[in-house]
Amino acid sequence: LFRSVLRTGVSILAHYEPELEDSSRAANLRKAERLLAQIPLVIAEYFRATKGQPVVPAKPELGFAANMLTMVKGTPPSVADAKAFDVSLILYAEHEFNASTFTARVVCSTESDLHSSITAAIGALKGRLHGGANEKVMDMLLKTGGPDKAEAWIRSALARKEKVMGFGHRVYKHGDVRAQALKEYTVQAAQRAGTTQWEAAADIIEKVLGAEKNLFPNLDWPAGRLYHALGLEVPLYTPFFVASRVTGWAAHVIEQTEHNRIMRPRGLYTGPEERHVIPIDKR
Questions:
Q1: Is 276 an annotated catalytic residue?
Q2: Is the dihedral of CA 189, 191, 195, 198 positive or negative?
Q3: Is the model's pLDDT at 132 over the cut of 90?
Q4: Is 169 an active-site residue?
Q5: Who has the most CB within 10 Å: 20, 134, 218, 272?
Q6: How far apart are CA 243 and CA 250, in angstroms?
């Protein structure tokens, strides 16, 4: 539901965008900057409305990450928590031609506008196979029952051929460098929050999957644990991804627009060979 709200929110914002039809580089940069500011407001105000809580206005003295946490939680985060959250957003900001980014580029290649491209990208992110993995990380860890039972749980899950969220990547076959960069912040956040038992369980799962399946963590693995340690509710995790990735999507839209050629892939026909129709009068 939250991803649908964001998709619709960006579409609605297009109606109030004064430069919507201007696809020049300068205008697209301004529109991207406005979306970067507007999307956290959509996230925070919708989330707090569902809780019956009042809106928390942005604080000019706070940075982007600290402001988003403040608007969601109602109180400013510690410097350390804001830094950890900021690092996660930086690591999520751009990541080449994943499904949502490719969607954005296809849409803008038709000479559609930036808001349409971002709306389409969020639509692609709504699917189960792209986005949402960080939301499943803590669900899985909680199911293990803690570090004492983690190894037995993961071995049983592998025997049942269950998909383990937060591991494996189409690009990083030997480990996601982004996950390695975020892990230290996640561990420190868990120490501050008193949730180190889940870090211990996570270490056990990492070792088993590395040894048994040659599978390594992707960015969602430490990010899901970090957001849990920060006291953030699971439905917020993918919206945070959107708040960050809008920068990458917009950059791709700007690049595609400046060197545009419509994206029109070909399909390779693999059906029956050419067949000839016998005229009706000769049947």
A1: no
A2: positive
A3: no
A4: yes
A5: 134
A6: 12
